[in-house]
Amino acid sequence: MFDKLKVWAKQLKRKVYVLYFAYKDKQTPWYAKVFAMCVVAYAFSPIDLIPDFIPILGYLDDLILIPLGVALALKMIPSAVMQECILKAEERIEAGKPKNWLAGGLIIMVWLAVFLMVSAAAYRYLFNQGAIAQSLHDGSQPKCGAASLR
């Protein structure tokens, strides 16, 4: 079972390299280039959309999103381009995996934006709760739009 999984992962890695060269090829249609570029950028990104340390969900993107994206992208690429890119991919595999820090940076920015939005919402919630409590204690009108809570 583990050996089959290793073989499958190795084949998937080869296909990602094929996509890497296919999106750079002039004969690849524009829509296939864009889709393949997104799949390759995500696959080579050192940072995942869902971090691997999150139980179960952390590996779902690696087990579902990448193989699905690779399969769809490969169907969009002409067979003549595929043959040429397979040869280039074999050579590149020997040299090692490139890292895509641009995609990693974009993913970091998404997580940072989510963190800032949650932090801002928590701050507003806590600030409003504090304003309401203070106004009840003082007997004054609540601030920050909490007047309707009285």
Describe the structure.
- This protein has 5 helices and no strands.
- It is an all-alpha fold and 150 residues long.
- Helix 1 packs across helix 3 (57-76), helix 1 packs across helix 4 and helix 2 runs antiparallel to helix 3 (57-76).
- The longest helix is centred in the last third of the chain and has 38 residues, at 101-138.
- The protein is elongated and about 80 Å long.
Task: Describe the structure concisely.
The protein has 150 residues and is mostly helical.
Task: Throw out a few tags for this protein.
single chain, mainly alpha, elongated, 5 helices, 150 residues
Topology:
Blueprint: H1 2-22, H2 30-44, H3 57-76, H4 79-95, H5 101-138
Helix pairs in contact: 1-2, 1-3, 1-4, 2-3
The oligomeric state is single chain
In whole angstroms, the N-to-C terminal distance is 64 Å
Fraction in beta strands:
under 5%
| Count of helical stretches | 5
The helix content is: over 70%
Q: Indicate the structural class.
A: mainly alpha
Order of helices and strands: HHHHH
Tertiary shape: elongated
* Total strands: 0
Please describe the biggest sheet, giving its number of strands, its sense, and whether it closes into a barrel.
none
Mean pLDDT equals 77
Low-confidence stretches: none
* Radius of gyration using CA atoms only: 24 Å
